[in-house]
Design brief:
alpha+beta; 50s Ribosomal Protein L5, Chain: A; six-stranded antiparallel β-sheet
C-alpha cells in the first residue's frame, strides 16, 4: 500500500534525563525520524509507519491500537501518546490516563492519502480471535 503521512512526535526532556536517550526512544519506534531539540523538549518528524506497524503486529496489540487511533481521531489526524520508557526499549505501550512523571511521546499522524479508515486498516487491521483479518481470510470463509 502506498500512503502519504506527516508524523509529528513531541517529547519533554526532564532535567534528570539524557536528551540522546529520549531521541533514541523516538527513533526506536519511528526509525529515520528527524529529531530536533527545542526548549526542554524534542520535536521529531517522520513519514513512515512501517516499523511502527510491525511492532503493533509483533506485540499483538492491533485491537488496542485501533481503539487508540479511532478515539484520538480528528478529521484526517490521529493523535495518541506512547510511554517514553517502553519506547526506549523498542516497545509500544499506549499511555492512557495520567501522564507518566517523565512525560510521554505525543504522536500526531496527519493522513494525506488514502482515507483515514483505510490507513488505519493498513497499519492495524481488524482482528478476529486476535489475528489480523486479511482479504484472503475473508474470502476463505
Amino acid at each position: 500500500m502506498i500512503y502519504s503521512v506527516d508524523i509529528q512526535i513531541t517529547a519533554p526532556v526532564q532535567d534528570t534525563e539524557i536528551e540522546a536517550r529520549v531521541a533514541d526512544a523516538i527513533e526506536n519506534i519511528f526509525p529515520g525520524a528527524e529529531v530536533e531539540s527545542s526548549h526542554g523538549e524534542l520535536l521529531a518528524k517522520a513519514h513512515s509507519v512501517e516499523h511502527f506497524s510491525e511492532l503493533l503486529h509483533r506485540q499483538e496489540i492491533l485491537d488496542t491500537a485501533r481503539g487508540e487511533f479511532f478515539s484520538g481521531r480528528e478529521g484526517d489526524t490521529l493523535s495518541f501518546s506512547l510511554k517514553k520508557q517502553a519506547a526506549f526499549q523498542g516497545v509500544i505501550n499506549f499511555a492512557v490516563g495520567n501522564p507518566d512523571e517523565l512525560g510521554n511521546l505525543r504522536v500526531r499522524i496527519r493522513v494525506n492519502d488514502p482515507p483515514v479508515e483505510e490507513f488505519i486498516d493498513h497499519i492495524a487491521p481488524p482482528t478476529e480471535d486476535g489475528k489480523p483479518i486479511t482479504d484472503e481470510a475473508r474470502g476463505s470463509r
